[in-house]
Amino acid sequence: MSVQKDPSGRRFIAVETEVPGTPEEVWRAIATGPGLTAWFVPSQLEERPKGALTMNFGPGMESKAEIQEWDPPRRFTAENKD
To answer: Helix or strand or coil: residue 37?
Structure first.
């Protein structure tokens, strides 16, 4: 995983990985609040474009993002709002 820059010079990290499971099973694990909460950190996710994604890493350590792309079960992107 490396930091990349878009044409405007803005930095970003893109992560891609292959995991076992149907597209629908993987989608539920990575693109829903209950799915993320089950294996990562407590999370809430509004399942739609421009929806909010909030991940709680502990007291005072909340990460907020806005969903940019929402195409179940193919593509999901979010941009950090912190």
So the answer is: helix
Averaged pLDDT of the chain:
91
Per-residue confidence band for 81, with pLDDT thresholds at 50, 70 and 90: confident
Q: Are 73 and 26 in contact (CB under 8 A)?
A: yes
49-59: burial string, b at 16+ Cβ within 10 Å, e else: eeeebebeeee
Residue with tokens 């209950």: 34
* Cβ atoms within 10 Å of 26's Cβ, excluding its own: 16
CB atoms under 10 Å from CB of 22, counted, come to: 9
Nearest to 33 by CA among 23, 41, 22, 25: 41
pLDDT at 1: 60
Residue 82 has pLDDT above 70, yes or no: no
